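Exam revision sheet. Question 4 asks you to relate a sequence to its structure. Input first:
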Amino acid sequence: MYTTQMDAARQGIITKEMQAVAEYEHMDAEEVRGYVAKGQICIPCNKNHTSIHPYGIGSMLQTKINVNLGISRDCRDMDMEIEKVNNAVKMGAESIMDLSSFGDTRTFRKRLTSECPAIIGTVPIYDAVVYYHKALKEITSQEWIDIVKMHAEDGVDFMTIHCGMNRETAQKFKENKRLMNIVSRGGSIMFAWMEMTGQENPFYEHYDEILDICREYDVTMSLGDACRPGCLEDGTDIAQIEELVTLGELTRRAWEKDVQVMIEGPGHMPMNQIAANMEIQKTICKGAPFYVLGPIVTDIAPGYDHITSAIGGAIAAAAGASFLCYVTPAEHLRLPNVDDVKEGIIATKIAAHAADIAKGVKGAMDWDHKMDIARKKLDWEAMFELAIDPEKARRYREEAKPEKEDTCSMCGNFCAVKNTNRILDGEIVSIFDE
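Answer key, structure tokens:
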């Protein structure tokens, strides 16, 4: 018998989840098992999430994407959030992170783990504030841990646990002033709790108890980046690196208990720092999968941060990140609506796919090759079917119908593809006479 995917892998057992990942990635199952044993692939798959389709997360695999959703004080419509979830899964999101922060969060969470085939993640620190419904400083260390246990029982596959910012890291943060301070919601909550109570971060102090919970249910630890930079000026600063060093040590301790781990990465930073950050993480955390938000590469584009994030995400994934958290056009402005969610998913999937091509992930170029053949043949239906967003591609062409069906309104009879094909076929090309 085995307790977790990592435990099975270390015993030489290929689980049905590893087999599913191997088939999806066009890899040998034994190769997947070897990476899981070393901690370089994780398969977030809670034993109580019976509707899940297993996915592997690792730098040698297809880059996966996560979509953040959930109910809040300003958006209480559970059915609308479920609609967003279903749309996200249809568009290819492998993971849904429930960031609910208001109301009956447990009902929503259980609905996800009973119905949704995607990986489900949560941030227990948010839910504790909602669940206990009392002053932050009155929440006890045991109550923080009890929420982790509840989420594990409910079938959550991975949890962001902000255990890297202990009192020592918090002191470093205070001594080394930042422009944007702490922008992680979970990080800011735990920092405030430590400051008000004078106690150590319970997720750090009682880390072994957290690991025992994760081991029992096979929950993947997503070690949260409470000190992620919130603006370019704070990128790769002392607080961020100090926390990462702590996460490296916590990764080792998790692996000793056969608990799977991901490391959460930076939020905002200049493009020229991204690849170096990936290398630092891989070195300190011994190749554990890296889960990044963005990085967002410029701070001046509210309304377009799905683009700033996709730029950073493509660079990060090409340099070794395994898992991209989507960002929508609504980032920094408001809750995303259904259209925002779609824009964020598409931008992030483009970034992930571009990185997979750069990394030489098996099969990544096949999709592009099929599109290239369709374009060469001017086969518009095939192009639409192969497009990452078929509906938009089809709509754009319909909105500007060309005079000739085998061209588009951009070039018309000047179409280079059409004219070259005809010349090579021995035909006469007479652009103005056609």
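Marking note for examiners. The longest helix spans residues 338-359.
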